[in-house]
């Protein structure tokens, strides 16, 4: 029996796959994430042994789990593109057109550059019809409603990659049969492509008719769209590319996150290179938190924001609401390359309070209070920390756009004595932004829970602008 399992990693919107054949007992994994036990569990569920681990390309948004999975299962080898790649660890090379047989199905590698120079896609064929693929694992070359961006390797390579991406899309994918199912490397929410669709798979025929990346009349108009209109490149992407090219650290288990009593926690926080992340809700954080903490709430999104805000050599201290969630939170952080944990506060904020240590607060404003405060205090600056696309679609009148993905460096130019109120779509990113500012010494920062959603729910006025 043929087996195909899709694994969606929320937060980074990453898709990986386990494909197997129960008669031969063999399975492959494509683009595994860091916490690899999910693939072991699925293989056992179907009575399969993982024998091959394929990478479509050098990833930028998460740490690859290929080496860790191979080390853990002991029955598999890692297979990487042989085409202009910068891999620096031992693995089997894969060339364009190379065929792999797995019982009832075949896998054929195809060079599909554009997102990266070495990028591969993998056609899936029945053994009895090896020349007719019925599905393709597209990696980051073609998404549902979108395509991979060509600008992640820097300006010097963007033009060449944009042209290669155009050729991949128009001379390869558009020449495939309409019935071919596409299984992409990311779903909606990933910054590896613009406006990726909500569905986790599609068909060539549907994309041919609806995907704007596949419907430009010429290369020049295509290039203008994919390069000039591209969203900002996340700060941590180039760093993770280097990690994945060099060879990610083997992680057969989560790195130790030691429990620290309040006195030890306070001592460690003062050490050089340590950052403190409070994963509680924005309202709990606002009510009282350890000075210097940054509020990145415990939900899948935190993977990307930890990657965006902190250097890989930072040591991470954690404050959590429920200590039984430490392992899940740890894996969310590890996915974007951060595996150096200084510890977590044993007993949570209650233990800190009982020890009598200092607390600070982050004032929360409802949207009604924000509106009143804006009218009564014209010196207050309202910062919209959403993406440029969200900003252009509508924002609070008089607000200033300060995309959170760029704030770690950009806020250095702001006056720390002025008053600021931050908002996003729901308050989650706004709380990250306001707590980051507060940790940098800003004296009067306020957060807006509910943010843009609440503003719209109250029916307040909206300003629209194409300026970001």
Automatic annotation (TrEMBL):
The segment(s) forming the Rhodanese domain are 270-361, 376-464
For whether the record's keyword set contains Hydrolase, the answer is: yes
Identify the keywords attached in UniProt to this record, alphabetized. Hydrolase, Metal-binding
Instruction: Using the UniProt record, name the top-level EC class of this enzyme in a single word.
Output: hydrolase
Q: Choose any GO biological process term that the UniProt entry carries and state it.
A: glutathione metabolic process
Q: Which SMART domains match?
A: Lactamase_B, RHOD
Q: Which InterPro entries match?
A: Metallo-B-lactamas, Mito_Persulfide_Diox, POD-like_MBL-fold, Rhodanese-like_dom, Rhodanese-like_dom_sf, RibonucZ/Hydroxyglut_hydro, Thiosulphate_STrfase_CS
The superkingdom of the source organism is Bacteria
Q: Which GO terms describe its molecular function?
A: hydrolase activity; metal ion binding; sulfur dioxygenase activity; thiosulfate-cyanide sulfurtransferase activity
What's its EC?
Answer: 3.-.-.-
Q: What is this protein called?
A: Polyketide biosynthesis zinc-dependent hydrolase BaeB
Organism listed in the record: Allorhodopirellula heiligendammensis
Lineage runs: Bacteria, Pseudomonadati, Planctomycetota, Planctomycetia, Pirellulales
Which gene is transcribed and translated to give this protein?
A: baeB_2
């Amino acid at each position: 029996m043929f087996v195909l399992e899709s694994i969606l990693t929320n937060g980074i919107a990453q898709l990986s796959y386990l494909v197997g054949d129960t008669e031969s007992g063999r399975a492959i994994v494509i683009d595994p994430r860091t916490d690899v036990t999910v693939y072991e569990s699925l293989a056992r569920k179907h009575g399969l042994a993982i024998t091959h681990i394929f990478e479509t390309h050098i990833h930028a948004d998460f740490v690859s789990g290929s080496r860790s999975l191979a080390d853990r299962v002991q029955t598999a080898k890692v297979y990487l593109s042989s085409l202009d790649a910068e891999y620096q660890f031992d693995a089997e090379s894969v060339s364009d057109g190379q065929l792999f047989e797995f019982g009832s199905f075949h896998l054929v590698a195809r060079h599909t550059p554009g997102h990266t120079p070495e990028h591969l896609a993998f056609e899936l064929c029945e053994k009895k019809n090896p020349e007719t693929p019925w599905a393709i694992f597209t990696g980051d070359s073609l998404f549902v409603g979108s395509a991979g961006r060509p600008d992640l390797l820097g300006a010097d390579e963007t033009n060449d990659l944009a042209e290669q991406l155009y050729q991949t899309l128009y001379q390869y994918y558009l020449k495939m049969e309409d019935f071919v199912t596409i299984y992409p490397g990311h779903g909606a929410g990933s910054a590896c492509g613009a406006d990726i669709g909500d569905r986790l798979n599609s068909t060539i025929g549907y994309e041919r008719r609806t995907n704007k990346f596949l419907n430009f009349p010429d290369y020049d108009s295509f290039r203008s769209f994919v390069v000039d209109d591209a969203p900002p490149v996340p700060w941590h992407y180039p760093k993770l590319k280097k990690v994945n090219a060099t060879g990610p650290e083997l992680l057969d288990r989560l790195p130790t996150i030691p429990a620290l009593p309040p006195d030890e926690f306070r001592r460690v926080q003062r050490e050089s290179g340590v950052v403190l992340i409070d994963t509680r809700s924005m309202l709990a954080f606002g009510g009282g938190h350890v000075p210097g903490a940054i509020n990145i709430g415990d939900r899948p999104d935190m993977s990307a924001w930890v990657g965006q805000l902190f250097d890989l050599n930072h040591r991470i201290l954690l404050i959590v609401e429920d200590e039984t969630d430490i392992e899940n939170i740890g894996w969310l952080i590890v996915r974007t390359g951060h595996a150096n944990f200084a510890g977590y506060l044993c007993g949570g904020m209650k233990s800190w309070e009982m020890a009598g240590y200092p607390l600070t607060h982050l004032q929360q404003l409802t949207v009604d209070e924000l509106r009143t405060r804006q009218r009564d205090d014209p010196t207050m600056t309202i910062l919209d920390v959403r993406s440029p696309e969200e900003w252009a679609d509508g924002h609070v009148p008089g607000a200033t756009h300060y995309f959170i993905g760029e704030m770690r460096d950009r806020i250095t130019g702001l006056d720390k004595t002025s008053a600021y109120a931050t908002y996003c779509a729901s308050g989650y990113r706004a709380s990250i932004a306001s707590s980051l500012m507060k940790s940098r010494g800003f004296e009067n920062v306020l957060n807006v829970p509910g943010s843009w959603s609440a503003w719209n729910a109250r029916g307040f006025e909206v300003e629209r602008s194409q300026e970001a």
